[in-house]
Recover the amino acids of this structure.
């Protein structure tokens, strides 16, 4: 299997999620392109990096999902995850449907406010932040969703890293500085800013292509 570049890895993660939503046995590169907005050639190039052979009627969904999981080291068994910070954003993530058909299961939630942990309702236990280290060790939690106030984000991320957390989905507006722990920035402002940059780049490209080829710059 060839080395998978980072942009391809991110697309394959999205593709795996898309495949989990399908109710058909097979899917073609044309259908994937239509559902994702990627070009057919890009879809085929990404899948070529996997040990998954297509057929005349496309790719078998289960085989393609398994190939992506193997290539990205996404184990078939679910990994334990916790939510740290149960304000409005964190509390919204307590709903189980966010993690259906995913490689993760939420097993704990933490908040600095004891009152919040007692008032909020969830299908998994909620704890005060003072118990974070002991619960993570006992429940063997490997990943965390961070949704604390920005001013507390770095300190809390460092606590999670010391607990052995392998990856943090960062919903705060703080750019975290950590060694040995993977971080994926998921803050709405950061994602929207990235989308703005992408849309501006696309618009500039479209304007350039629309220019008269004889027009000078």
């Amino acid at each position: 299997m060839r080395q998978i570049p980072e942009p391809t890895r991110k697309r394959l993660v999205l593709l795996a999620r898309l495949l989990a939503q399908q109710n058909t046995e097979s899917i073609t590169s044309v259908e994937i392109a239509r559902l994702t907005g990627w070009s057919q050639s890009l879809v085929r190039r990404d899948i070529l990096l996997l040990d998954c052979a297509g057929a005349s009627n496309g790719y078998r969904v289960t085989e393609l999902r398994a190939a992506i999981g193997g290539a990205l080291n996404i184990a078939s068994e679910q990994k334990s995850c916790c939510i740290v910070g149960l304000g409005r954003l964190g509390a919204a993530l307590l709903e189980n449907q966010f993690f259906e058909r995913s490689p993760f299961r939420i097993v704990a939630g933490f908040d600095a406010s004891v009152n919040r942990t007692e008032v909020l309702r969830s299908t998994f236990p909620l704890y005060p932040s003072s118990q974070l280290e002991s619960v993570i060790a006992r429940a063997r939690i490997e990943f965390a969703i961070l949704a604390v106030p920005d001013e507390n984000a770095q300190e809390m991320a460092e606590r999670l890293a010391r607990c052995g957390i392998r990856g943090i989905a960062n919903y705060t507006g703080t750019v975290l500085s950590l060694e040995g722990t993977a971080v994926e920035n998921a803050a709405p402002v950061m994602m929207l800013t990235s989308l703005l940059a992408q849309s501006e780049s696309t618009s500039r490209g479209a304007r350039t292509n629309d220019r008269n080829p004889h027009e000078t710059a």
